[in-house]
Amino acid sequence: MVAEADRIAAEHVEVMTSEPRRWLDRLKNYGALFLDPETNVSYGDEVIGTNQPCRPRVRARYTGGLWVGKFFKTCIYWEIKTPEASAVVGEYCSRLCAIERFRGHKEQADLRVRRYGRKNAAE
Fold first, then answer.
1. Which among 12, 38, 91, 105 is annotated as catalytic?
2. pLDDT per residue of the chain (123 residues) written in tens, 0 to 9
């Protein structure tokens, strides 16, 4: 699985296993890595990190997320440790996605707000 993921070198990789950090040191070619079901692509694109435009089609083999050190290969990852934190981030993410009309990203955030939060997702 690691070899295939590194061969594909996707812009976004989501790891949803019982031990997601086990894969952190093993995966090498990705634009952004998301660990656990509490973390997701829309959070990374909108709220919790640098917006990492990494062009698709294997470019993650030689490039990573956008930042001042862009001249060096760097891989970035996010990990939200608790369901409660995911719900809080999800509320912000949902609002931003609604403004930007990113419906798919908004639904990722809303799903976590519904699953882990105590209130409804933003309309």
1. 12
2. 899 999 988 888 889 888 989 999 899 988 888 998 888 888 887 888 665 555 556 666 666 666 666 667 777 888 999 999 999 999 999 999 999 999 999 999 999 999 998 665 555
Rounded to two decimals, what is the model's pTM?
A: 0.52
Q: Backbone phi, then psi, for 46, in 5-degree steps?
A: -110, -35
Instruction: Assign 32 to helix, strand or coil.
Output: strand
Which is catalytic among the residues 4, 11, 14, 105? 11
91 catalytically annotated: no
The DSSP output letter for 120 is: P
Q: Identify the three-state secondary structure at position 54.
A: coil
- The answer to whether residues 118 and 74 touch, using CB atoms and an 8 Å cutoff, is no
